[in-house]
Amino acid sequence: MLTKENLEEILITSLRLGGDFAEIFIEETNTTSLSGEDNKIEKISSGTEAGAGIRVISGKETAYAASADTSFESLRTAALKISQEISGEKKIKSLDLRPRIPEHLPPIKQRPNEVMTEVKTGQVELLNKTARAYGDNIKQVTVRYTDSNQAVTIANSEGVYVEDNRIRTRYFINVIAEKNGVLQTGYEAPGGTVGFELFELYPPEAYARRAAERALKMLDAPHAPAGKMTVVLSSEAGGTLIHEACGHALEADFIMKGTSVFSGKIGGRVASELITVIDDTRLAGKFGSYAFDDEGTPAQKTVLIENGILKGYMSDWYTSQQLGILRTGNGRREDFRHKPVPRMTNTLIAPGEMDPAEIIASVKDGLLVKHMGGGQVNVTNGDFVFEVTEGCLIENGKNKGPVRGAILIGNGPKILEIIDLVGSDLGFQAGVCGKYDHAPVSDAQPTIRIPGIIVGGRM
Predict the structure, then answer these.
(1) Spatial contact of 30 and 148, defined as CB atoms under 8 Å apart
(2) What span, in angstroms and rounded, lies between the C-alpha atoms of 387 and 453?
(3) Separation of alpha carbons 111 and 42, rounded Å
(4) pTM score, two decimals?
């Protein structure tokens, strides 16, 4: 166990030849995962991984070293080596680390490491059993469960000293149904910064039923029509649109590189006046929440777009220095092997005032999107293609039943500009964002109406 004095000496050693900033990130992560398929538990695994990363920055230069050996001598040697890669004017001879206390702590009710493996297995089996009970058209059910407990220590040459413990729990169920050679998929994957009470918050029978019913419902659905039409994105669809088509372009590393469509537009109108976009790391229990980011900056709420006006970007230490902007607590890394970069946490379009049912009723002919799948987005210009895994036709304001095979094709910033109705609801979905490495996130949106978007389907 490294003492505060050990950390101070490592940081001083990192800057012995000069530099603007030095940081050490230490973690120990315990994980458990279970997976089931073909009516049996296929794999149970658990393990612990520990390591540390040391970073030194001078101007625009960054040096980084990572080690699985977290002993004082090993890290001091790594700090000495990395100091030789960076030169500068700033040298420190003494350092007084000042502990930061989190303003809020996640309300963990049942720590996963205190739950017997047999109990976890029982929940996986319940998910499988519930989905398979829907009949012979259910051909495959895959279930996964994961929990992690990440203990981190973060210290830097600005005097920051943080200790934090992050617990996340999630399960995933994927159901494949088949009829007359047609295959359809339904999945659910709830998760959060919660303990084993996840199964109280997201009852496995209810979510397995959702996945199975979605797959079965789409088997008999006709193909979606193609063309430009009004699209209503239900809050059930989660925030895939805001995350992929807009969120990444608001991360400050893309701004710094000049590759974002939002570069240089602070204070300008970039969306409908009905649209406010927020990244909020403090939301209790959400998958992207934490008390401190991976640089020790406290969690905070960041308003990115307010009533259509671009207010700011998501930044970490490096991008805030280079761009001269506020640090927003969005510095994140997959683990100790990676340098932090600006990443989303819990990103959402804020709710409006309209009844979601009235939004659907306002559409003469269009598409209601209830569940989104994967897709691709170009951060430079905002162009995107998204799969719709559950969609319904709207005729004369009524839901006329499901259609399959729909694809949404459009441009994120342009979509934000033309959204003309925003509902009072808000739906979240948990996910893992793979920007360069992987980070847990949540995305959310209310029901929204897009008056004109290209839908790929059949003519």
Answers:
(1) yes
(2) 14
(3) 24
(4) 0.95
